[in-house]
Amino acid sequence: MKGRGRKEGRERKEERRNAPRSCYAGYFQCAEGLCIPEALVCDGELNCIAGNDEENCAREGKARSCFPGYFQCALGNCIPGNLVCDGELNCVTGNDEAFC
Ligand SMILES: [Ca+2]
Ligand SMILES: [Ca+2]
């Protein structure tokens, strides 16, 4: 029943999605005008020629570090440090257990 700290990063991402863009809904517009599926945004790989599909993540919190004592999952959410290496997957990607 403990909060997992998943919200913070997520909510900010949602805000971005509502920004008016000239791509179809569900697509992200790169700096050079290319439209890529939103699933490719912040997935850790550069899909825009300008690379800004990943750049924004850093600004929105993905590559930003968590509060002291917290661990950052691959998707950018933060979990309490004591959940790292506790034998249970707390990150969606399970990377809190990957480095044990
Ligand atoms: Ca990407
Ligand atoms: Ca864990």
UniProtKB/TrEMBL annotation:
<keyword id="KW-0472">Membrane</keyword>
<keyword id="KW-1015">Disulfide bond</keyword>
<keyword id="KW-0675">Receptor</keyword>
<keyword id="KW-0677">Repeat</keyword>
<keyword id="KW-0812">Transmembrane</keyword>
<feature type="disulfide bond">
    <location>
        <begin position="66"/>
        <end position="78"/>
    </location>
</feature>
<feature type="disulfide bond">
    <location>
        <begin position="85"/>
        <end position="100"/>
    </location>
</feature>
<dbReference type="InterPro" id="IPR023415">
    <property type="entry name" value="LDLR_class-A_CS"/>
</dbReference>
<keyword id="KW-0325">Glycoprotein</keyword>
<dbReference type="InterPro" id="IPR002172">
    <property type="entry name" value="LDrepeatLR_classA_rpt"/>
</dbReference>
<dbReference type="GO" id="GO:0006898">
    <property type="term" value="P:receptor-mediated endocytosis"/>
</dbReference>
<dbReference type="Pfam" id="PF00057">
    <property type="entry name" value="Ldl_recept_a"/>
</dbReference>
<feature type="disulfide bond">
    <location>
        <begin position="30"/>
        <end position="48"/>
    </location>
</feature>
<dbReference type="GO" id="GO:0043235">
    <property type="term" value="C:receptor complex"/>
</dbReference>
<keyword id="KW-1133">Transmembrane helix</keyword>
<feature type="disulfide bond">
    <location>
        <begin position="23"/>
        <end position="35"/>
    </location>
</feature>
<protein>
    <submittedName>
        <fullName>Uncharacterized protein</fullName>
    </submittedName>
</protein>
<dbReference type="GO" id="GO:0042562">
    <property type="term" value="F:hormone binding"/>
</dbReference>
<feature type="disulfide bond">
    <location>
        <begin position="73"/>
        <end position="91"/>
    </location>
</feature>
<feature type="disulfide bond">
    <location>
        <begin position="42"/>
        <end position="57"/>
    </location>
</feature>
<dbReference type="InterPro" id="IPR036055">
    <property type="entry name" value="LDL_receptor-like_sf"/>
</dbReference>
<dbReference type="InterPro" id="IPR051221">
    <property type="entry name" value="LDLR-related"/>
</dbReference>
<dbReference type="GO" id="GO:0016324">
    <property type="term" value="C:apical plasma membrane"/>
</dbReference>
